[in-house]
Amino acid sequence: LSLHKSNPPGQTFRFQVIDQTAMAAPVLKKLLSVADGNALPKTVAEACRLARSGEPGPVAIDLSAQMLSDTMEMKEISLPSAAPSSPQVDPARLEQLAQRLRTARRPLLLLGMGAMEAGQAIRQLAERMLCPVMTTCSGRGSIPEDDPLVVCPDFGMRDIELVNELVSQADLVLALGCKFTHNGSAGFRLRIPEEKLIHIDASAAVLNANYPASLAIEADIPALFTESAVHDLLQAEFAGEWTHDELAAWRRKILDTLPPSMTELPRLTDLAKLTLPDFFSRFRSILPRDAIIVTDSGFHQMLTRTFLPINAPRGIITPADFQAMDFGIPAAIGAALAAPRRRVVAVVGDGSMAMSAMELRTAVRERIPLTVIVLNDSSLGLIRRLQIEYYG
User: Fold this and answer.
1) Closest CA to 298 of 277, 315, 323, 320
2) 3-class SS of residue 277
3) Domain of residue 293, CATH code
4) Which of 2-16, 126-140, 250-264, 293-307 has the lowest mean pLDDT?
5) Does residue 190 share a domain with residue 333?
6) Is the pLDDT of residue 159 over 90?
7) Which residues are paired to 345 by β-bridges?
8) Which of 314, 321, 316, 313 is nearest to 305 (CA)?
9) Same domain (yes/no): 108, 55
10) Which domain holds residue 6?
11) pTM for the complete prediction?
């Protein structure tokens, strides 16, 4: 929730006055305006409701300059319940969903951020259907990645042709809480035919936006799994034909095959006998199971996402869609404050460290326990690799 002062009326070209509304609009879920201080409590409550309903997102309140100079009697602000609201789902659509899942021969689950709080129920469904599970980067940890059903964690960091081969063998793809953005679809290279796709998301805006679905349902995923029809589905008999051996073979094949961008890995000069996969394996072995890993934007993020398993909900945080540098250390501080009982580690590159190192002063001042790992290649590694790829 952001509060800012609106531009005063009158002269143009004022000192440091710009159209904040226009600048903020592309990243806001909603912009509200308040000219009368008496309306402020109600507007703040409405902003909080909007920020948490459907797909959570930032809301800004534009405060008039005159109002900020007035004296007013403030009333207590009645905030909405912490639980986000969930749209009502048509029972007929739920029955259609249940029928298609029961009769699917080779179903596949694709989990995004919206599935994060329903991992246990989704795991039960996947086990009952005996089907492979894929995740986006933001959906990682909803089901622990050492679970044999998680055949393809973070498919954007895998060989996309191999991923598409797996999808081609499925006769139904159930996407739960996936936005299908550029980064959430491997640059739109993920191929899911419309007739196979069932898409469920809390935001109506993302349904059929980039990937048309034969069945699209607006629903909060955790709330959906409390519906009686879905609860009954977890006890149903399924027609699935996947075998444990097939899933194990696909898991090995996908995890053991590096994408073309990872075929030439840098060496660790300080640990000459340790490869990058070995480093991340040992790193994982000393981390608590519920540790939170935060990355910045860059090649270090790609390495971390490729080689580090995530075994707890919200176990990895990245600047997923915008991929802005200077994110890692501030976000890690925020994660440590939000989850004080979980170990937080920031993995950053030397470029992002140069941009955000001063934020460590905040961590020290506030006594925030934080571990920072810097992968230093003396360059903006991802940009450098792209330059070599494009220009030689």
Assistant:
1) 323
2) helix
3) 3.40.50.970
4) 2-16
5) no
6) yes
7) 293, 371
8) 316
9) no
10) 2-69
11) 0.89
Q: Both 124 and 183 in a single domain?
A: yes
**Is 270 in the same domain as 246?**
no
Contact at 8 Å (CB) between 345 and 287? yes
Beta strands in 18-73 (DSSP E): 30-34, 59-63
Please check whether residues 371 and 272 belong to one and the same domain: yes
Please write the tens of the pLDDT for every residue from 318-347: 998 888 899 999 999 999 999 999 999 999
User: What is the residue-averaged pLDDT of the chain?
Assistant: 91
Which tokens in the block code for residue 163? 């991923």
Percent of the chain scoring above 70 in pLDDT: 97
Q: Evaluate whether 331 touches 317 at the Cβ level (below 8 Å).
A: yes
The first and second tokens of residue 65, run together, are 């300059």
Specify the number of domains making up the chain: 3
Q: Is 144 exposed, middle or buried (0-12, 13-18, 19+ CB in 10 A)?
A: buried
Does residue 32 sit in the same domain as residue 97? no
Residue 82 has what pLDDT? 59
Same-domain check for residues 126 and 145: yes
CB 110 within 8 A of CB 127: no
Burial 275-294 (b: 16+ CB within 10 A, else e): ebeebbeebbeebeebbbbb
**Domain assignment present for 86:** no
Number of CB atoms found within 10 A of residue 20's CB: 16
152 secondary structure, DSSP code: E
Average pLDDT over residues 356-380: 94
Higher pLDDT, 83 or 158: 158
Q: Is 82 inside a domain boundary?
A: no
- Is residue 150 assigned to a domain? yes
pLDDT, tens digit (0-9, with 9 covering 90-100), for 171-209: 999 999 999 999 999 999 999 999 999 999 999 999 999
DSSP string, 175-224: EES----SGGGTTTT----GGGEEEEES-GGGTTSSS--SEEEE--HHHH
**Comparing 78-87, 135-144, 331-340, which segment has the lowest mean pLDDT?**
78-87
- For residues 71 and 40, the answer to whether their CB atoms sit within 8 Å is no
* Concatenated DSSP letters of 88-147: ---HHHHHHHHHHHHH-SSEEEEE-GGGGGGHHHHHHHHHHHT--EEE-STTTTSS-TTS
Q: Which two tokens stand for residue 63?
A: 């405060």
- Both 122 and 237 in one domain: the answer is yes
* Residue the block writes with tokens 């290279």: 189
Asked if residue 380 belongs to a domain, the reply is yes
